Fold these 2 entries.
Entry 1:
Amino acid sequence: MLEGCVFATVLCGFLGTIFKKNLLMKIVSMDVMSTGVIAYYVVVAARGGVFTPILTDGEITGNYADPVPQAVILTAIVIGFSIQALMLVGVMKLARNNPTLETHEIEQNNTP
């Protein structure tokens, strides 16, 4: 069930990226798709019965969770945020020269 919701989120973001004509909506759709991919990774990596890898008394007892997937997810979130900021700067630069953010109108204005 949860995997289905995550897959629907990724699919909605993917379809929005393809079919939306507004550049701002494309960026939002890409963010939704990125969120779905990160959620899928979290759903796959989630396990019960493990502890966080924090030393309390100097000894590790029992099973502990692998911290590498957490570091990978944090890195993916930071990279996704920076890419989104870069795309928004590009859209702001396009908006200075064009009165609209619709892709077909921008293409018509910039074709010789």
Entry 2:
Amino acid sequence: MIDLPIGSTFELIVEWLQNNLEPFFDAISNILTFIISGFENIFLFPPSIVIIIILSLLAWKLSDRRIAIFTFIGLGLIVGMELWEETMQTLALVIVSALVALLIGVPLGIWASRNNVVDRILRPILDFMQTMPAFVYLIPAVLFFKMGKVPGAVATVIFATPPVVRLTNLGIRQVPTDVIEAAKSFGSTSRQMLFKVQLPMALPTILAGVNQTIMLSLSMVVIAAMIGAKGLGEKVLTGITQLEIGLGFESGVSVVILAMILDRITQALGKTAE
């Protein structure tokens, strides 16, 4: 059998990147630390009831009264379990990771929808990213960014980006041909076609990708606790390793509540766009 040194080659690549791009990784680390800490301060500075009311009103505005009531009761339950700080740390990490994933994913999806070569190149890369076990992403993240919330955010971005790329690409490609032809007949430029026809019509599909990206971010943030990311994942991990069943259960319930709130709000955004 031929011995393919794939693992050792990967190690050499990682070592080269560590030796030659350390300032670049330090800059990314500093920026992400600043943004994540900023969100944490915003969520944790006011009393918890203020944030609960704001999020409940947001849920009412974007979704409906039932989701607002669920948001109020659910977040109140988290406060009662004394997991408010950890929940807000997790929410901050999810928001930052999802925003970075969207900033990368949406332009890539647009590019892939307008260029078949890019689409063919991206497809196997996205397959690779989605099928690779989530724990594997923690390895390069730790090597480049050490331990803490930054490698957790980086691993989360890698894990959560593929859905929004795929669904942005799909949404634009599904815009009916007769609509495209009609826009061309009125003299639309390529830029006008994209921003005034394709993106508005693809918005429900793109928002479905946003929903998936946020949900994957939340699931990965919990796993990222293994490399020092604070938040609910850390409590879940403590519950597992120290057999604190009650703490593990309460942390799991808090993750479910947060996931349901984020899911219902982002789903409501998609329905509004339809």
